[in-house]
Amino acid sequence: MGSAHIDQRSLLGLAESIASSAKTIVDILKGQKLPQPSFLPCSPMKYPENPEFAKLQDARMNLITSAWAIEQFAAGPQDYVYWQAYTIKHDLTVLNAFAKFGIFDAVPPDGDISYADLARKVPLTERQLRRLFRHAMTKNIFFEPRPDHVAHTALSMAPVKNPTLKPWIHHNLGEVLPASSRLADAVEKYGDTQDPTQTALSMAWNLGKGKSLFDWLENDGEGPERGWRARLFAQAMQAMDGGGHDRRYTIQGFNWEGLGGATVVDVGGSSGFISMSLAEKFPALRFVVQDLPEVEDAFNALIPTDLRSRVTFQRYDFMTPQPQYSADVFLLRHVLHDWTDAIAIKILRNLINGPGGTMKDGARIIVSDNVMPPMGVIPPPLERLTTTADLQMWTVTNALERRKDDWIDLFKQADERLETVAFVQPEGSSDTVIEVVFHDK
Ligand SMILES: C[S@@+](CC[C@H](N)C(=O)[O-])C[C@H]1O[C@@H](n2cnc3c(N)ncnc32)[C@H](O)[C@@H]1O
User: Fold this and answer.
1) The pLDDT of residue 228
2) How far does the centroid of ligand 1 lie from the alpha carbon of residue 250, in Å?
3) Hey, what's the signal peptide range on this chain (predicted)?
4) Is there a domain that residue 341 lies in?
């Protein structure tokens, strides 16, 4: 078991470390004839991933860790804590307002636009716009190339170039942020509960008795609007398809080719984007994407014609017995971490015990999810992604991120016949692919 250590470096030591990591990054990019980082809107959105990835990644992680520490030294403890409490929430509010009111897309990607003209394109007044922009610009999100005009920077261009960041912002800042600000109140009221209906989210959004996150996403809204949150959530999940949660890690982490002509059931598969990528790569495989009814539209919008015969959608509630119980493989990607142990066990048992029989001997459950590493063994910027995922689950469903032993215990508790045979975490991946085999003996 590792432990997190306090950073012992001095102010000058941090500055030297920053200079050294920055030089490594500059040299690698120069060597590969790639642009240097800048705030120009045409800047690349991501770092390259190639043979020098590990060296580049180490330098980036050290640079970020050192920059965080040096910011804390430069601010001093009193100002740092005071500023954090005061400013951060508004950074997030502004980002949410930009996404909600279509401002990222209303500012032209090239050139600039006056606040007055922008106010004619979006549902905000010039005065409101100026106030939001002025705060955002302190962190290099948009800038004023000339008085009274606003233009994009590389950061404000990110949701324009990758539109899935907009539903991602909506879910995290429009839905989860009001809930995370109630986490302490929910703990005070409900204690250390694992009930998915007694959460900070249910408190913040007055969900009513017995309603959980997914009931709310699925049912909020009237008439044709109903389920609008679930549809946006399905798009937000596609934003996770990049960085450490890129779909390619789920593809690399298991020998899909070796399955031959099997049927894979993608349980809680959302828009089906993983199944579609797997189907493209492995033409012998067939897929059934299962999710709640409101997600079907997102699937229909995404499925290419040539995959329709091999990738289908089935409305299915995984709190009920699995209709495809005789399939060869069940994929659960980013699903079990949404649920406390008692419910995750119920979901697993529903896979095994179908309405007409049990899972086939030798069938596999493939889980692609976070496995919490021991404390302090991965760089702090990556550690923060795992602790964020854990707190996010606590906030929205009272669930958690599990360590390796927790996963093994979970499968055993669900059914003694489940054997966990592999944990594979491809390089660069935040997800681990866990392979579990069912022995019907
Ligand atoms: C965190 S998302 C993961 C989606 C997808 N597997 C991925 O990798 O991005 C969890 C999914 O579980 C689905 N879900 C939640 N409750 C469900 C239920 N009772 N039955 C079936 N699907 C459900 C949600 O609609 C959502 O698509």
Assistant:
1) 94
2) 16
3) none
4) yes
Does this model's pTM top 0.95? My answer is: no
Q: Note whether 267 and 118 are same-domain residues.
A: no
d(C-alpha 398, C-alpha 390), whole Å: 10
Helices (H), 32-169: 53-75, 77-100, 103-106, 115-121, 126-137, 154-161, 165-169
Same domain, 66 and 87: no
Domain boundary pick from 48, 75, 102: 75
Q: Which of 270, 311, 313, 340 to probe ligand 1 with, by most ligand atoms within 8 A of CB?
A: 270
Q: 335 CA to middle of ligand 1, Å?
A: 6
Range of the domain at 27: 11-75
Domain count for the chain: 4
One domain, residues 141 and 199: no
Q: Compute φ and ψ for 432, nearest 5 degrees.
A: -115, 140
On the question of pLDDT at 306 being above 60, the answer is yes
CATH code of the domain covering residue 427: 3.40.50.150
Residue nearest to atom 1 of ligand 1 (CA): 334
Are 52 and 88 members of one domain? no
Reading the block at residue 417, the tokens are 């016949």
Question: Is 149 labeled as catalytic in the residue annotation?
Answer: no
Distance 267 CA to ligand 1 centre (A): 7
User: What is the position in ligand 1's atom list of the atom closest to the CA of 338?
Assistant: 1
CATH at 149: 1.10.10.10
Q: What is the pLDDT of residues 99-156, one digit of tens each?
A: 999 999 999 999 999 999 999 999 999 999 999 999 999 999 999 999 999 999 999 9
- Cβ-contact 196, 343 below 8 angstroms: yes
Q: Cβ < 6 Å from ligand 1: which residues? A: 214, 234, 237, 268-270, 274, 291-292, 295, 316-319, 333-335, 338
CA proximity to 410, closest of 333, 350, 340, 354:
340
Mean pLDDT of the chain: 95
40: closest CA among 124, 110, 89?
110
Nearest residue (by CA) to ligand 1, atom 18, is: 317
